[in-house]
Design brief:
The chain is mainly beta. Helix content is 14%, strand content 39%. It starts with a strand and ends with a helix. The C terminus is likely disordered.
């Protein structure tokens, strides 16, 4: 500090709560100043009062007039810059939800959340969810890792709620958005089970019947052809027929002879 006027001047220092009194001063005009160029780091002069009345503190000085026998009180108020707490953004959170109707307990899907220093991978099954809290506002991306999709499943839909700046892409399984201060964003991935692909039956070739190879049959004398078995049967029947004819013929011859003998 410094005080000057009416042929008097002095420099002095004060700490918080301290004071300095100057007596036996001649009546007249004086200036009391805080040397703001020499203020400690992170401190500001915020107010000056003279006998309780606030005066302009822009240049750090107060002009006072002292009458005979008067006492004047000049007060300087300083504040540390750190006393004013910085404005901190309220953190947000992201919740990822998985829906896969019909998935068994062992069927899980891979995910990744990234943005603002966050890079976290995790797994979710049907009905599962994962929440990331205390997140700084900014841009984030939530991805379902399609390369690790379980067999027989496909990504059907992505829904983002809780924020307005959203971009989704089913082809690469991503949802990108801006997380605002204090926002709670929910990203839901819905998967569909695909119908199994059945192998088409191979065309069958029609069954060809075995070729019939005719056997050469001996001539029976009647223009017919017989196989070996039929040939044997035919000869047997022919022999029997011939024998019968001979017997009948013999009988008829005997009768003729007898009749002829009686006539004689």
């Amino acid at each position: 500090f410094a005080i000057s006027g009416e042929g008097f001047s002095d420099d002095f220092s004060l700490q918080g709560g301290q004071s300095e009194t100057f007596g036996n001063l001649e009546p007249g005009d004086y200036t009391v100043s805080e040397l703001i160029d020499e203020l400690p780091d992170e401190w500001d002069l915020v107010a000056i009062t003279v006998n309780g009345a606030e005066v302009d503190a822009d240049d750090g000085s107060a002009a006072v007039s002292i009458g005979a026998g008067e006492s004047v009180l000049v007060t300087f108020t300083n504040e540390e810059e750190d006393e004013t707490l910085p404005i901190v953004d309220e953190p947000g959170e992201i919740t990822v939800v998985k829906l896969a109707d019909g998935a068994t307990a062992g069927t899980v899907f891979g995910f990744n959340v990234s943005g603002n220093g966050v890079n976290q991978s995790f797994l979710l099954g049907d009905g599962g969810n994962q929440t990331f809290g205390n997140l700084e506002p900014g841009d984030y991306t939530v991805e379902e890792i399609l390369d690790n999709m379980p067999d027989g499943w496909t990504l059907g839909d992505i829904e983002v709620t809780g924020t307005s700046n959203v971009s989704t892409n089913l082809d690469d399984g991503t949802a990108s958005f801006t997380l605002g201060e204090g926002e709670s964003v929910t990203v839901t991935f819905e998967n569909d089970e695909t119908a199994p692909i059945e192998d088409e039956p191979e065309p069958t070739q029609p069954t060809q019947p075995d070729p019939v190879v005719p056997s050469k049959m001996p001539d029976t004398g009647f223009g017919g052809v017989q196989d070996e078995g039929a040939q044997s049967s035919a000869w047997t029947m022919a022999a029997m027929l011939l024998a019968s004819m001979l017997v009948v013929f013999g009988l008829r011859a005997s009768v003729v002879r007898r009749s002829y003998s009686g006539a004689r």
